[in-house]
């Protein structure tokens, strides 16, 4: 309710004004009354008055003088003057004195109601404008604060005690700190209400609210690149584990209630502000692992336990190129599914996964170039594997994207009639895929199996796939060997024989040439 002050030297006039309308219906209530301007000014010092209804003719301090003094002291005060004089001069004088409106005595009830409606509308509009201004100021302050914290955590600016005290006052004096990075997950099956960006901020905000409610002191770096970053203060034994429990509970609640899910990455703890940028990198890195480990969870940097990086890009690129050149969409999709399945393991490496994506994208681009296909909309020229993994957000989405892009490539290439040589190469490939473990398998055996001259097959296979027949046999054997090693088979003699090699040393040499490490190291065995 807005507060009203009545000023009139006649008691009966004041009483009639009180009873003239239902004040509350217009959003007002009578806060006070006085019979002269001097007492009215005293009441303004005591009360928070929004509207004063003032008679011109009053003793000591009249209405015009009251209006002049009150408007200078209280610029936000609305005033309406009551006068028995209907001349234009009095109306002008009232407006000059600071009144927003005036009424003639005797007062007409309908006119009085209309005046109250106008005053309430003006006051409401002014309040809304003031609130918007306050919001703009708060938002501006928040933007400046978030930008400073973000640039500090990015390592773009040095930590400064004065700025830190200004923008993160609650974090001073803590024993240890961690950095958290959170983002809404990009998975199917979640409720899709309203604007996506707003919904994502609300989901991440629920995690922030849970931490703040539990008493943790936060310094926020705001929202950037689809994620929100916080510096969190830790005090006492068990604070880090308590924070982890709070995050897990908040994330679990979001999933159980059917909201969009979120994931949180947590850095290792630190006690020196110089280490904050590295902690921020750790938090973002841990969060990125949701692509492999799944969303809706807390990912702690110290618990990632990823396998060491093993370079195997050559086999991925070459194999994909071969499959694309043969034009077998089912085989391409099967290879993509096979590679994606490898990274569902709990110790899968994100770096290795991004290398895989880069090699597949390179294979797509090379194939498009070879076939003189328009690659726009299939493989962006500036594709960054890490950004692709982050933007798609899950193995399943990435698998669908890879299969979709390869199908687009093959679909565009399908407009050209398949040559007899392409069909012959595919027939040879299918035979090799079945029989690669035969130690007697060579060019002559393969050519005889498909009833073609060996020299002709050698030339055609190289032309259609980009690799020789024997190179493809080796690729198939090495892929199977790697699969056995990853399943835990440790007997290298058994592995070499299982993939078609009678000499384990020669097998090891071929394996190292393709994958960059000998099979003993790949399997985690001592040399």
UniProtKB/TrEMBL annotation:
Any GO MF annotation of the entry: sequence-specific DNA binding
One of the GO BP terms on file: phosphorelay signal transduction system
Sequence ranges assigned to domain HTH araC/xylS-type in this UniProt record: 426-525
Subcellular location field: Cytoplasm
Major localization listed first in the record, in broad terms: cytoplasm
Domain called Response regulatory: residue spans: 3-120
Cellular component GO terms, alphabetical: cytoplasm
Gene3D superfamilies in alphabetical order: 3.40.50.2300, Homeodomain-like
Keyword Phosphoprotein attributed: yes
Tagged with keyword Coiled coil: yes
Keywords recorded for this protein, A-Z: Coiled coil, Cytoplasm, DNA-binding, Phosphoprotein, Transcription, Transcription regulation, Two-component regulatory system
Coiled coil spans: 109-143
Residues that bear 4-aspartylphosphate: 55
Record-linked Pfam families: HTH_18, Response_reg
Protein name: Response regulator
Organism per entry: Cohnella thailandensis
């Amino acid at each position: 309710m807005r507060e009203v002050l009545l000023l009139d030297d006649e008691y009966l006039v004041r009483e009639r004004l009180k009873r003239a309308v239902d004040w509350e219906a217009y959003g007002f209530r009578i806060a006070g009354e006085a019979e002269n301007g001097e007492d009215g000014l005293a009441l303004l010092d005591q009360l928070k008055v929004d509207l004063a209804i003032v008679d011109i003719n009053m003793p000591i301090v009249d209405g015009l003088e009251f209006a002049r003094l009150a408007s200078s002291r209280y610029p936000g005060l609305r005033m309406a003057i009551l006068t028995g004089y209907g001349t234009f001069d009095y109306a002008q004088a009232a407006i000059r004195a600071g009144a927003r409106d005036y009424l003639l005595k005797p007062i007409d009830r309908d006119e009085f109601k209309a005046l109250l409606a106008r005053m309430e509308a003006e006051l409401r509009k002014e309040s809304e404008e003031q609130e918007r201004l306050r919001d703009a100021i708060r938002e501006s302050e928040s933007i400046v604060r978030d930008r400073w914290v973000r640039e500090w955590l990015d390592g773009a600016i040095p930590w400064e005690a004065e700025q830190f005290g200004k923008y993160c006052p609650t974090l001073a004096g803590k024993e240890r700190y961690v950095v958290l990075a959170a983002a809404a997950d990009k998975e199917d099956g979640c409720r899709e209400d309203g604007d996506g960006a707003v919904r994502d901020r609300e989901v991440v905000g629920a995690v922030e609210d849970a931490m703040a409610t539990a008493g943790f002191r936060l310094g926020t770096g705001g929202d950037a690149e689809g994620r929100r970053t916080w510096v969190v203060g830790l005090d006492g034994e068990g604070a880090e584990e308590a924070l982890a429990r709070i995050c897990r509970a908040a994330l679990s609640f979001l999933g159980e209630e059917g909201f969009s899910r979120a994931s949180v990455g947590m850095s290792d703890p630190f006690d020196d502000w110089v280490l904050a940028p590295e902690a921020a990198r750790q938090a973002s890195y841990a969060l990125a692992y949701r692509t492999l480990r799944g969303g809706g969870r807390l990912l702690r940097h110290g618990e990632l336990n990823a396998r060491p990086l093993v370079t195997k890009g050559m086999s991925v690129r070459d194999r994909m190129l071969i499959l694309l050149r043969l034009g077998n969409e089912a085989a391409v999709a099967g290879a993509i599914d096979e590679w994606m399945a490898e990274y569902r393991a709990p110790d899968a490496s994100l770096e290795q996964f991004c290398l895989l994506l880069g090699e597949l994208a390179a294979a797509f681009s090379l194939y498009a170039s070879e076939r003189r296909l328009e690659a726009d909309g299939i493989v962006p020229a500036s594709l960054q594997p890490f950004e692709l993994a982050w933007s798609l957000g899950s193995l399943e989405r990435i698998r669908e994207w890879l299969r979709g892009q390869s199908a687009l490539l093959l679909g565009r290439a399908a407009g050209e009639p398949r040559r007899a040589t392409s069909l012959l190469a595919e027939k040879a490939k299918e035979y090799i895929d079945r029989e690669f473990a035969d130690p007697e398998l060579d060019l002559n055996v393969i050519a005889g199996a498909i009833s073609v001259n060996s020299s002709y097959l050698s030339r055609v296979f190289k032309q259609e796939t980009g690799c020789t027949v024997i190179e493809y046999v080796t690729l198939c054997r090495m892929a199977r060997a790697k699969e056995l090693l990853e399943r835990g088979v440790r007997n290298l003699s058994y592995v070499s024989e299982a993939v078609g090699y009678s000499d384990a040393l020669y097998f090891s040499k071929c394996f190292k040439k393709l994958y960059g490490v000998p099979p003993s190291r790949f399997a985690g065995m001592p040399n």
